[in-house]
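Support request, please re-run this one:
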Amino acid sequence: MKIGIERISFHIPHQYLDLTSLAEHHGTDSDKFSRGIGQDKMSFPCHDEDIVTLAAEAALPIIKAHGPDGIDSLLFATETGIDQSKSAGIYVHRLLGLKPQCRNVELKQACYSATAALQMACGYVARKPDRKILVIASDVSRYDLGGAAEATQGSGAVAMLISANPAILEIDLASGCHSEDIMDFWRPNYRKTPLVDGKYSALKYLQSLGHAWADYQVNEGRAFEDFAQFCYHLPFSRMGEKAHRHLASLNGAKVDADKINPGLAYSRQIGNCYSAALYLSLISALESTDQDLTDKPIALFSYGSGAVAEFFSGVIQPGYRAQLFTDRHQGLMANRAALSYDQYVDLWHAPDPQNGEQVVIDVQTTGTFRLAKIETHKRHYEIA
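Re-run finished. Output below.
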């Protein structure tokens, strides 16, 4: 029985900061960003947007197409949670009108957790082939103003409907994993921004890729040369290029840019979406190439600092193009408004009341869902 991704959709805020503006403010050559890390823009949320609204927006086209009734579970992956107890998915559950019988849980392991959710969903559908699972990855990456990682910020959400006989991607049984207790990127509860050892994190990313690939091969995975496209976790797009060169070298193979560049295209314009980053790369790979990928294997590498990594694969299904939301996705990117540096700094300071005071938030988003206010420690969401 085939199990995998039936539909996949993403959403981003309607505003972005062009990294040339960031470079000008800091007196830096913009090539440091466009060539050095391979990034051009970063999406940034309004004050009435957060991981809940982005997640609901990403899933909405799927719910409109398929309805809510067959969905047994909502698995919400994030590392920028809004509550230490309540899952962000509970809010999304109401906003999307999911049935009360739908279970709901939030998963966390840095940027890796959406892959855990995907594999769990596939396992559940194997037991109950008539049911579907909604997996959502949603994050807002925010680093210290003026810090080394500032240019790698971003925000967005990816929603995936997991089912039997999927219309887009059948997930292979073979996968390879690697877990290791390291401190390359972490955010203690008392901090609003993470702590990062950038060079060490890049090193561990590459080492974890090697370990996960080796385990994938032990588990009877496909050969390197079999893949039509490679998708990587992308904290910035240049990291994906480094990863692919590393994997090619491990296999004594030459780098074919046509097998990786399509998966980098969207990330350059959006930035780091943490748990959603790999799956944004997957959407980009499917929508940014004229190549017909029908029946072609595609490779995916997921990495979450701390660290957990997984290399897995799948096969693109016949008729997949008709199941994509390409026009919607490309319209979202094309119709965004550019932020000035000062506007970006204002948005960076998101509402964060600490003592239960009321904060009423003006309408800023152009989306269907918004965070309307925070009052007595409770978040209140509205449907436009």
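The radius of gyration is 20 Å. The chain has one domain: 3-383.
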